[in-house]
Amino acid sequence: MTTTITAGTATITPLLVEGYTAARDGGALVHRILGSSAPDVTLRPAGMRTGSLVLLFDVEGTARAAWTALSGAVVAVLTDTDRAIGMSFVVPDGQPLSLALDDVTRRHWHLTVPFQEVSA
User: Fold this and answer.
1) What is the distance between the alpha carbons of residues 69 and 99, in angstroms, rounded to a whole number?
2) Which of 29, 48, 70, 92 is deepest in the core (most CB within 10 A)?
3) Residue 119's pLDDT band (boundaries 50, 70, 90)?
4) What is the architecture of the domain spanning 3-118?
5) Which residues fall within 8 angstroms of residue 104, CB to CB, at 6 or more apart?
């Protein structure tokens, strides 16, 4: 399994994607009609994915380099050879990237990356 994130000129290869959570806003608009039991519906596709990734690193310097690369004004590209999670994304305003030392191993690093999928 290989997961790679390209952010600007940086290539990020975590040890593991420890967590992936995604959601989409529905797209259909439902208009309630007074005096009718059936609403009027405007069909639209669902929105792009939003969520977070938790990336595991075994070297502090590599984790910090990933943190720095994803903190820039870049559209990042995620590819994964085993899962259908690939996408182009940005880190949304007001949602922090967080870097944490693993409590158990005291050696590994966890980088939590909030994302908003965007068109490439």
Assistant:
1) 13
2) 70
3) confident
4) Beta Barrel (2.40)
5) none
pLDDT, residue 46, reads 92
Give 33-64 pLDDT, tens digit per residue.
999 999 999 999 999 999 999 999 999 999 99
Give me the residue label for tokens 């975590």. Answer: 14
Could you state, in order of their start, the residue ranges of all structural domains in the chain? 3-118
| Torsion over CA: 114, 116, 117, 120 (sign) | negative
Phi then psi for residue 27, to 5 deg, are -110, -25
CB 116 within 8 A of CB 92: yes
For residues 70 and 91, the answer to whether their CB atoms sit within 8 Å is: yes
What the block records as the tokens of 48 is 């792009």
In the block, residue with structure tokens 């000129």: 9
Backbone dihedral region for residue 91 (phi beyond 0: left; psi -120 to 50: alpha; all else: beta): beta
Tokens of 44: 């639209």
